[in-house]
Amino acid sequence: MEHTKTYNATELKTPNGPLIIEGPIGSEKLASYEFHRDLTAFRPPGQQHQALIEIAALPEGRILIARHKHTIVGYVTYLYPDPLERWSEGKMENLIELGAIEVVPDFRGCAAGKNLLRVSMMDDKMEDYIIITTEYYWHWDLKGTGLNVWEYRKVMEKMMNAGGLEWFATDEPEISSHPANCLMARIGKRVDPDSIQQFDQLRFKNRFMY
């Protein structure tokens, strides 16, 4: 499968100044930008910046960023699921994962996350993919936002809906371990029925176990 990537961009006006929402961005361009010190949800900022640069270099990897002047203040990643996860077991070329989305506190509440997803989906190539994301409450910034688990879940669902991702049921153990965790997905218009059936089989592995 050919992973073509078409660059798109938009400008978002916020109380803290304009943001450029753009991507997919190549590795060299990503490396040339500053990476905001508050992007710490997954690993220390320097390490996360390097991880994004590496993802951008993958054939299927896509990084879109929210940029304030020369500084990355938000991003979203798309790549094949982790080899250790259930979602990689089918070795589906047309299944990619929205692996991470993060926006610094200073630019939250101004639809930066929603716009990262909207700009992602401007690329027609996304209609060839099943895009999944797995939401786990232990990754959420409950302390920083002051939201409880259910309020945060609602915020995450609304943001993902902006990119066309919807809730899907699954019996995957880690997702099933807490009712706030969830699987969300977007099935592109050109995804074939066999791939959809394969995805359904990945979602439910214990369907016939009693």
What does this entry look like structurally?
This protein has 210 residues and is α+β, with helices and mostly antiparallel strands. It has a single domain, classed as Aminopeptidase. The chain contains 7 helices and 9 strands, in the order E-E-H-E-H-E-E-E-H-E-H-H-E-H-E-H. The protein has helices spanning 27-32, 45-56, 112-120, 142-145, 149-162, 173-176, 193-203, and strands at 8-12, 19-23, 34-35, 62-68, 71-79, 95-103, 130-135, 166-168, 182-187. Strands 1, 2, 3, 4, 5, 6, 7, 8 and 9 form a 9-stranded mixed β-sheet that branches. Helix 3 packs parallel to helix 5. The protein is globular, with a radius of gyration of 17 Å. The N and C termini lie far apart (38 Å). The model has no long low-confidence stretch (mean pLDDT 94).
Shape label: globular
Distance between the termini: 38 Å
Count of discrete alpha- or pi-helical segments spanning 4 or more residues: 7
Number of domains: 1
CATH topology: the name is: Aminopeptidase
Class from helix and strand fractions: alpha+beta
* Gyration radius from CA atoms, angstroms: 17 Å
For CATH, the homologous superfamily is named as Gcn5-related N-acetyltransferase (GNAT)
Number of strands: 9
Q: Which percent bin holds the helix content?
A: 25-40%
Mean pLDDT: 94
Beta-strand residue percentage: 15-25%
CATH C-level label:
Alpha Beta
